[in-house]
Design a protein that fits this description.
InterPro entries: DNA_bind_recomb_sf, DNA_bind_recombinase_dom, Resolv_N, Resolvase-like_N_sf, SSR_resolvase
Pfam families: Resolvase
Order of helices and strands: EHEHEHHEEHEEHHH
Strand content: 15-25%
Helix content: 40-55%
Number of strands: 7
Low-confidence stretches: 208-224
GO molecular function: DNA binding; DNA strand exchange activity
Mean pLDDT: 78
Structural class: alpha/beta
Protein name: Recombinase family protein
Shape: elongated
CATH topology of the largest domain: Rossmann fold
Largest sheet: 5 strands, mixed
Radius of gyration: 25 Å
Organism: Aminipila terrae
Distance between the termini: 64 Å
């Protein structure tokens, strides 16, 4: 009996993608349990993680580690692009697993790394997945550039502003501090380091943002870098 696990991944954490991940998980479990020569070893799944790099894919790394230690005999995944969109990573991990007699089946691509021509076909599909990832990235960047040309703002606004649905709005509490810094720099001819020191001495709060939507005003946060950005 072979211990078989499934691996699924979605690149964003929105509801549709997470539903897709749940569907993948259900499919893998049923797929494995239909084969009487396989033992279900569990599901590994990464949510909201890009496939172009393995570095942040904790579940993937855990799965590889378990396989190399001998706890897993076979990995099944939907397609090459779910396993990795980087040709080098794909071949590296498939070869590493193969050295420990662990196979990988890419269901939709009809590829089994244990077959004689498995690596040849895998190289082709991995290259296609990598190119598609590159094109997708270019399309996203192109779309963002067009949006920015129209005044749309991505991410949070700079200090003195807040970003609401892509539009910058002035935050008066912060804007007063920005105006004060501007006056000291332009009219009082003070350097950035001098202004930063004065604001720290005056316990003026500048910059910063806590995770989870916390305050943007933090005491003593007047480093040179923050003054330059403002």
């Amino acid at each position: 009996m072979l211990t078989v696990v499934g691996y699924g991944r979605v690149s964003t954490d929105d509801d549709d993608q997470l539903n897709s991940l749940q569907n993948q998980t259900t499919f893998f479990k049923e797929y494995i349990q239909r084969n009487h020569e396989w033992t279900f070893g569990g599901i590994y799944a990464d949510e909201g993680i890009t496939g172009t790099s393995v570095r942040k894919r904790e579940q993937f790394k855990e799965m590889i580690g378990e396989a190399l230690e001998g706890s897993i005999d076979l990995i099944i995944t939907k397609e090459v692009s779910r396993f990795a969109r980087n040709t080098v990573d794909t071949l590296y991990y498939v070869r590493l697993l193969k050295s420990k007699n662990v196979g990988v089946i890419f269901i939709n691509d009809n590829i089994d790394s244990r077959d004689k021509d498995g690596e040849f076909r895998l190289t082709i599909m991995a290259s296609v997945a990598q190119e598609e990832s590159r094109k997708t990235s270019e399309r996203v960047k192109w779309g963002q550039k067009r949006q920015m040309e129209k005044g749309f703002v991505f991410g949070r606004g700079p200090f003195g502003y807040k970003c609401k649905k892509g539009v910058l709005e002035i935050v008066e509490e912060e804007a007063d501090i920005v105006r004060d810094i501007f006056n000291r720099y332009v009219y009082e001819k003070k350097g950035i380091s001098v202004i930063a020191k004065e604001l720290i001495d005056e316990k003026v709060m500048v910059g910063g943002e806590l995770k989870g939507g916390g305050p943007r005003l933090l005491p003593g946060y007047c480093a040179m870098k923050n003054m330059q950005e403002i």
